[in-house]
Amino acid sequence: MKRSAAEIKVTGIVQGVGFRPHVYRLANKLGLAGWIINTTNGVTIRVEGRAKDIKGFVRELQTSPPPLAYIESLRTKKIQPEGYSAFFIQKSSQSLDADISIPPDVGTCPDCLKEYNDPNNRRYGYPFTNCVNCGPRFSIIRASPYDRKNTSMNVFRMCADCAGEYEDPANRRFHAEPNACPTCGPQLLLTLPDGRAYNGDIRALLKAGKILAVKGIGAYHLACDAKNDKAVRLLRKRKKRQTKPFALMCRDLDVVRKNCELSLKEEELLTSPARPILLLKKRQTSMLCDEIAPGLDTLGVMLPYTPLHYGLFDDDISILVMTSANISGDPLIITEREAYSKLGFLADFFVVNKREIVNRADDSVVMSFMDMPYFIRRARGYVPQGIHLPCKVDPIFAAGGDLKGTFAYASDKKAVISQYFGDLGNLENFEAFKEGVRFFGEFLQIKPQSVACDIHPGYISTRFASAYAKELSVPLIKVQHHKAHFASAMADNALNESVLGVICDGTGYGEDGTIWGCEVFHGNYQEIKRVGSLESFLQPRGDEIIKYPLQMASVLLYSLWKDEDKVMRVLPGCKRLLPFVKAQVGSKTLCIESSSCGRLFDAAAAICGFTAMVSYEGEAAMRLESLAHYSPEVEPYSYSIHEGSIMRLSWGFLSEMADDKLQGTEASILAARFHTTFINALAEMVSKLAVKYKTDKVVFSGGTFQNRFVIKRLAERLKAMDIMPYFHRQVPTNDSGLALGQLMIAANR
Ligand code: ZN
Ligand code: ZN
Ligand code: FE
Fold it and tell me: What end-to-end distance do the CA atoms of the chain give, in Å?
């Protein structure tokens, strides 16, 4: 038989994902000899044997790689056979392995779940079962390279059975760093709030309506039976969380389907290795109480993602509330010490274990849009997966914004975005953010040559960036908030040319000292010009106004009409406010000029009847959207667009909306008309500018585009006009996507 040989170089996500054992098994199956080795940018394989088998080997590698692998390129070269008699895995040197990127945490794979449920398996019922295809990763890594000794599993010594699996190239647990079993791994412990062990059954406690603090992959959760209204209400009361929706964990897909509408794409996302919280449309027939997500037409749902979670369910428990176990606004709780001291009053029992969480990571929140994941919060399961950049950049750090703390490191054609740290205005969140910067900086070994941040002088992230730049002796580059959004959406869609961009959000510091928040730009990473905007209005100064939609509506309607009685008829309940409002309107000291989209939506929500104080960010707009979904097909109000050096969209249609309300029109119709007007007006403005600037590409970014009603219809409308809309794909459209845009602009300056 004539022997052939080939050298195959593969790049992509091929390390830490079971690629080598996969190749080993494949080579053995086809009777090929040779070896495989990890290299700095992928793997190199050498195979010898029959030409036909080598061909088959390459084909199968391409068509069915291991589940978590992603092959970016595969090059084959014919070489001289060297006469190997078997296939083996070559040890790679430390320095070579150092380049491995940090893998994200992975939800339990079907093989491990099977073992967990098999009474004859040695891992039957073991909550920490994992393998090379699943288990904790990012959350347990302390240092580079990703090796057991550098993870928090290092304190558990593998038993002979586990070590055998770990060493065996043919085994699914070959180099599965967190490998563990009931004999040698961490154990589940049920305790009372004072830390004493409690001899009881977790599921029985849940059934009895108890609230449990459960240590998971990236943080603690608070869990209770979602079908027990009393338990849900108690959890709200104890957590002092008024109306912010709770996330749910469902036992299986059937349970999800019973409560939510679920498309095939959504099903795919729910069961994907990242196991995110998915925003789904709640079924009207769902028996779950409104208290889970007050006033909203969606539920945030996830599936179990560690065997520990599977163990929380049985025939009677099918849905749990699973909310992050932090005191509202504080960082996620990850240690037992903190859990007992801070959650003692919140949880009745604690489910803990000795596997230390090194890097905290919230559950990710996504929705399905245009059959793609669309991020609200990018954390567990996705972080720290890299993002490919459309152009090369020198090593750089970007500090992001304050409200949704996230930073980014980038170099060459890759950016790594941190997990979400929450509002940096909270000192503890800022501490966690700094800890994250230190960890990523060391792990990625990127020495920034410049630092980027927002232009807002009061931002904590700006001050941090300035200190960091000083420490590194590198330039600090400040990037305007909405321009960063624009560049972020461009990079997220691999665009590297001049395009249009529409950025709509709540608050951002404008270049002219006013507040921006509904802006149209034209340009690229080097040069961005503001070409359109919402006509500005006066908004009361200070951050407090975001909590008071009623006040915002009063200010806008009063400045339109100057008619107290009429404002009061539209907004019963604003009487008390009117004296202040009258003083504010027209006073440059009490008000600031603003083109904030968020405040416009707040005002519209108040006109539709949501006049309460907002208890979480974006609540008014989310309730307005939920209302609109009940009346999808409506006539818009009339609107006007003023052309000039900057095209201005008038918000005067709020007046017609208010009149509509005085006619007795239903709130859901008002909400839908408001949405439709906004969508049509934006689309018209975009189409005019597209002609003017000779482009058919428009990117969209900013928190407003979390609104499903807006993005779906806007995308359809623009496509009908032969304009290609680009929404975010890998980073959130809200402020936690800012860092990506900041670094793109700063790196191209
Ligand atoms: Zn597994
Ligand atoms: Zn073991
Ligand atoms: Fe923003």
Answer: 61
- What residues contact residue 170 under an 8 Å CB cut-off, 6+ apart? 21, 24, 25, 28
Distance in angstroms (rounded) separating the CA atoms of residues 372 and 205: 38
Q: How many Å lie between the centroid of ligand 1 and the Cα of residue 274? A: 13
Q: What is the CATH number of domain 384-493+734-747?
A: 3.30.420.360
Find out whether 95 and 145 touch, Cβ atoms under 8 Å. Answer: no
CA distance 22 to 32: 13
The per-residue pLDDT for range 646-686, each reduced to its tens digit, is 999 999 999 999 999 999 999 999 999 999 999 999 999 99
Mean pLDDT of 556-566: 97
Chain segment 260-287, per-residue pLDDT in tens: 999 999 999 999 999 999 999 999 999 9
Q: 102-186 with 189-365: one CATH topology?
A: yes
DSSP assignment of 541-584? SSGGGGG-HHHHHHHHHHHHH--HHHHHHHSTT-TTTHHHHHHH
CB 209 within 8 A of CB 228: yes
pLDDT digits (tens, 9 = 90+) for 378-420: 999 999 988 989 999 999 999 999 999 999 999 988 899 999 9
Q: Which helix (H) or strand (E) holds 229?
A: helix 229-239
Tell me which residue of 247, 218, 225, 260 sits closest to 107, measured CA to CA: 218
Ligand positioned closest to the Cα atom of 160: 2
Q: Which ligand is nearest to the CA of 306?
A: 1
Give residue 663 CA to ligand 1 midpoint distance, Å: 61
Q: Compute the distance between CA of residue 44 and CA of residue 197 in angstroms, rounded to an integer.
A: 51
How many whole angstroms from 150 Cα to the centroid of ligand 2? 18
**Which ligand ends up closest to the CA of 176?**
1
CA-atom Rg of the chain in angstroms: 27
CA of 227 to the centre of ligand 3 (A): 36
738 C-alpha to center of ligand 3: Å?
Answer: 7
- Class of 501-726 per CATH? alpha beta
Three-state DSSP at 491 gives helix
**What 3-state DSSP class applies to 86?**
coil
Q: Tell which CATH architecture fits domain 4-89.
A: 2-Layer Sandwich (3.30)
Assigned CATH for 189-365: 3.90.870.40
CA 320 to chain centre: 21
Using CA atoms, how far apart are residues 305 and 316, in angstroms rounded to an integer?
A: 20
Q: Ligand 2 center to residue 179 CA distance, Å?
A: 8
Nearest CA to 181 out of 115, 243, 269 is that of: 115
Q: Taking residues 255-260, report their average pLDDT.
A: 98
pLDDT at 8 over 80: yes
Domain boundaries, given as residue ranges, for the chain:
4-89, 102-186, 189-365, 384-493+734-747, 501-726
Crossing angle for the helix pair 549-561 and 653-662, nearest 10 degrees? 100
Which residue, among 624, 635, 579, has the nearest Cα to 597 in the 3D structure? 624
Ligand nearest to the CA of 112: 1
Quick one: tokens of 683?
């689309």
User: Would you tell me which CATH number, out of the four given (3.90.870.30, 3.90.226.10, 3.30.450.20, 3.90.1210.10), belongs to the domain 102-186?
Assistant: 3.90.870.30
Could you tell me the distance, in angstroms and rounded to a whole number, from the CA of residue 182 to the centre of ligand 1? Answer: 16
Q: How far is the CA of 103 from the centre of ligand 1 (A)?
A: 15
Residues 6+ apart with CB under 8 A from 544: none
584 and 540 Cβ atoms separated by less than 8 Å? yes
Distance 122 CA to ligand 2 centre (A): 9
